[in-house]
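Journal club prep — side note

Before the paper discussion, L.F. wants everyone to see what a predicted structure for a comparable chain looks like in token form. Sequence:
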Amino acid sequence: MDSLKTSQSQYYQIDRYVKGTFRVQSMEPDILGDGSSGFVEVPSMSDVVIPILVKYITKSGLKPGDKLPPEKSLERVVGVSNRPLREALTILRSVGIVKSRPGKGWYVGRFEPMHSLRFLSPLLENMDGLNLEQIIDSRLAIEPLVARYAARNITEAGISRLQNAYQEMQEYVRDDDKDEFRKKDRYFHEVLAQECRHPVMSMLSSIMNGLFQSQLYLQTTANYGPILEQHKKILDGIQERNPDRAEAAMIEHIQKSHAFLKSILHKEAVLS
């Protein structure tokens, strides 16, 4: 017999377990985040438990640093055994939604979307049909606006972070350390994304920046001096708090970076 009944939580009921797939019925509208309160099928119990735990945290009014109930209590809340609960908590910990303290239990974390997106870009690299032209088009649509918003909203601390990043990029160009240059270049753009104070733009920019640098940029062997000069123009616009200048400098940077990459890739293709 394929059917398996489990305990019912206040949020959902397991209808049956068939060939590795759970059939789950939500006990309230859209608890699973799929736009429906009917039956859905999920591959594992942790996939069910994760959105339920997140909703429990938000509905309970828990704040970052607050202690979660003991695991036994959480098992009763979500209606599952310890194993799927632990799996779900471990996944949530990896993106900062919860954190654990040895011997003390689980606590609400301080979720940082930018940190979580670091895990996303490598997964998108192998997406079917993805190419450089699409990434550049997306960057042109997003990053100039990020620079514009950053010029308006950046803090003094943010300006200092950009200045320090640029100075380190200068050092890496002098030392011909392309790996470190690439890391600091990405950091420069992440600071801009954070300081634009626009959550949607920040997340999209982080994804685009990660995709752009992941496969192509870091694999080229050319001199990055011109790219450094482009970052100086962006920095100048930000420091002056001049949105028009910052936006124009970012557009120039993306367009020239694209041309630079295309020329390098063409040369490497000819030589190979």
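L.F.'s comment for the group: The radius of gyration is 23 Å. Keep this in mind when we get to the figures.
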